[in-house]
TrEMBL record:
Protein name: Solute carrier family 5 member 8
Annotated family: Belongs to the sodium:solute symporter (SSF) (TC 2.A.21) family.
Membrane-spanning residues: 15-34, 54-73, 85-108, 129-150, 162-178, 190-209, 240-259, 280-305, 340-369, 390-415
Topological relation to the membrane, as annotated: Multi-pass membrane protein
Alphabetized UniProt keyword annotations: Cell membrane, Ion transport, Membrane, Sodium, Sodium transport, Transmembrane, Transmembrane helix, Transport
Xref: InterPro entries: Na/Glc_symporter_sf, Na/solute_symporter, Sodium:Solute_Symporter_SSF
Length: 478
């Protein structure tokens, strides 16, 4: 079945909201460039002069690894596999306690800028350099994916220009990272967390109104098997269980909050260890809010399309397009709100990329330049700003390289999956159906409609250029 055309497209109000988000982010960079003219050292530029307080650092910690992938992929994950993903709320508690009580005191008392300085203190310089190089390569590749992947998904559903979105976000991110340093990055993160929550709420509130209340959405989720929290199967081969998410997730996120340069650099920029610890605990609240919004958005997605799955029906070509599809479906009569959701997605991108850029600049200066040169602090500060510009450029073009390498890996994994498919009892996707869709054929097109009280509130015309015509419905169960 051919994929559908765009069901709605951005209007002037949507572009205006998106542009305003970019403009405010850039303005924060300008502000801190003006008030921070005294940032004469690289440490002041990269660490904010260790003068930050708990609340903004906490929100920045929340934003740093809550990218557009969170906004788009987590609801789709809940839609397909259920709300067990919400158990990460428990792993976040363990992560914050371990990070604040075990890792933070070590890094804060050492007074280091790069976490890899610890490796030289503990082992030797070769170990430090190896860790630094691995971090740089990994982060550049990750940054390219974070920039390109959501742009592709949003382009295919909203009609937003692909490279226009990539380049505009890259340019703005470069600007405020290079102009304002860590303080600009932290305060833009604060603004962007607000945009992310607002974008989620715009979709959630509209879905709740359409579906007749929160209780109806939860009832639909329960009936569809989506409230599957308490699976205590001990098999490590299972996709999601209480144990793999709660304890496996703790190990994954501890590697981020405990030792990742982007996170460590934030909490050791606080003016005292008390503020640093407070930032981690306040950040826990931010993580819970973002997780709750993304999981409930996934339940809304299921409630709206429980009888007519857009992915199975060919309305979208990949699961990561489901959330933007619903946005354009249920918010198309409210100009500006689709733009707010896209701004939320790109706020996640900007916050993650800016964190990565600042972290890369820090490790490059501290681990690869300072130990081998005798540059003045002023020159190191200017070098830090120049590196911010270079790194983001590499990240933008890394998106294309990531696309090509991702294609090769996808072919490898896809071909391998044909020979060694995962067992259904391990992956266990939940049931999706199209029996509520009403397909009728025409000469060269067919219409997809649904009851006004059911999913798919708007009629979509699907261009069908193949010889076959499809009439009726079908369902897929895991």
């Amino acid at each position: 079945m051919a994929a559908s055309p765009v069901i709605g497209s951005f209007v002037a109000a949507d572009y205006a909201v998106f542009a305003l988000m970019l403009l405010v982010s850039a303005a924060i960079g300008v502000y801190y460039a003006i008030v921070g003219r005294g940032q004469s050292s690289s440490r002041e530029f990269l660490m904010g002069g260790q003068s930050m307080t708990a609340v903004p650092v906490a929100l920045s910690l929340t934003a740093s690894f809550m990218s557009a992938i969170t906004v788009l992929a987590t609801p789709a994950e809940v839609y397909r596999y259920g709300a067990s993903y919400g158990l990460f709320s428990l792993s976040y508690v363990l992560v914050v306690v371990v990070s604040s009580e075990v890792f933070l005191p070590v890094f804060y008392r050492l007074g280091i800028t790069s976490t890899y300085e610890y490796l030289e203190i503990r082992f030797n310089r070769a170990t430090r350099l190896l860790g630094t190089v691995m971090f740089i390569v990994q982060t550049i590749l990750y940054t390219g994916i974070v920039i390109y992947a959501p742009a592709l998904a949003l382009n295919q559903v909203t009609g937003m220009d692909l490279w226009g979105a990539v380049i505009s976000t890259g340019v703005v991110c470069t600007f405020y990272c290079a102009m304002g340093g860590l303080k600009a990055v932290v305060w833009t993160d604060v603004f962007q967390v607000g945009i992310m929550v607002a974008g989620f709420l715009s979709v959630i509130i509209r879905a709740v109104v359409l579906q007749g209340g929160v209780s109806n959405i939860l009832n639909h989720a329960e009936f569809g098997g989506r409230l599957n929290f308490w699976d205590f199967d001990a098999s490590p081969l299972r996709r999601h269980t209480f144990w793999t998410i709660t304890f496996g997730g703790t190990f994954v996120w501890t590697s981020i909050y405990g030792i990742n340069q982007a996170q460590v650099q934030r909490y050791i920029s606080c003016k005292s260890m008390t503020h640093a610890k407070m930032s981690l605990y306040i950040n826990l609240l931010g993580l819970w809010v973002i997780l709750l919004c993304s999981v409930f958005a996934g339940l809304c997605l299921y409630s709206v399309y429980k009888h007519c799955d857009p992915w199975t029906a060919g309305m979208v070509s990949a699961p990561d397009q489901l959330m933007p599809y619903m946005v354009m479906d249920i918010l198309r009569d409210y100009p500006g709100l689709p733009g707010l959701f896209v701004a939320a997605a790109y706020s996640g991108t900007l916050s993650t990329v800016s964190s990565s850029v600042n972290a890369l600049a820090a490790v490059t200066i501290e681990d690869l330049i300072k130990p081998y040169t005798h540059m003045s602090e002023k020159n190191l500060s200017w070098t830090s700003k120049g590196l911010s510009e270079c790194i983001i450029s590499i990240g933008v073009f890394g998106g294309l390289a990531g696309l090509l390498s991702g294609l090769v890996m996808s072919l490898w994994v896809g071909i391998g999956a044909q020979f060694y498919p995962p067992l259904p009892e391990q992956s266990r996707p939940l049931g999706l159906t199209t029996h509520g869709c009403n397909f009728t054929t025409a000469a060269d097109a067919f219409n997809w409609t649904a009851s006004p009280t059911e999913p798919g509130l708007y009629t979509t015309v699907l261009q069908q250029n193949t010889a076959e015509r499809y009439v009726g419905g079908f369902s897929i169960f895991g």
